[in-house]
Design goal:
The chain is an alpha+beta fold. The chain is built from 3 helices and 6 strands. The N and C termini lie far apart (about 100 Å).
């Protein structure tokens, strides 16, 4: 093979060796950048994925070991919820509760100035909050006794506001105008005992 000024037959062994070395180096550089380096990056990515998956596996095994305890805890919490709901009054019981509070105020020789139903904005599943306001007049001792009765309802009621105002400050035991705002929580779902 001859070409213009270049003849392969004229190449000496040393020239062929240099060409082979250069080609070998070029192939080694290409192999390093296009095969070895991407493979190493892929290996390090896979190793980090394996380490992350090992952590996930340990968490999963821990969760699986804890699953029976969690199921028992959930069952206990559900039973506690049902027990609590069973203690809440039904909507039909509210009138009786409010009447009992009114009778309690009258039995304490307090004057009932007003009683009204307000609104409550809380949203609780199977529970309806009903807001009430009651205005009373009585001595300090009578007012505190009524407040104590109102606080006894704490399992299913929450006192929102207490307002006190003196009518006459010259008496040793003046009459106090009191205004109580409270919310009664009633159960609206199906009978918790049936579930």
């Amino acid at each position: 093979m001859t070409s213009r000024g270049f003849d392969l037959r004229r190449l000496r062994q040393r020239d062929i060796a240099i060409i082979m070395i250069v080609l070998s180096l070029l192939l080694a550089v290409l192999w390093f950048f296009y095969m070895y380096q991407p493979t190493q990056e892929r290996i390090s990515t896979l190793e980090s994925d394996i380490a992350r998956l090992d952590v996930d596996i340990r968490r999963g095994e821990d969760a699986r070991r804890n699953l029976p305890d969690l199921r028992l805890a959930v069952a206990q919490l559900e039973q506690d919820r049902l027990d609590f709901l069973a203690q809440l009054p039904r909507e039909s019981d509210v009138a009786g509760l409010i009447d009992a509070l009114r009778v309690s105020a009258i039995d304490s020789d307090m004057l009932v100035n007003g009683f009204s139903q307000g609104s409550a904005s809380e949203s609780i599943q199977d529970v309806r909050p009903i807001g009430f306001q009651i205005g009373l007049q009585g001595t300090f001792q009578q007012t505190m006794a009524f407040l104590g009765r109102l606080e006894e309802m704490q399992r299913f009621a929450k006192i929102q506001r207490v307002g006190l105002n003196l009518d006459d400050n010259t008496s040793a035991d003046p009459l106090i105008n009191s205004d109580f705002g409270f919310t009664v929580y009633v159960y609206t779902g199906s009978d918790p005992g049936e579930q």
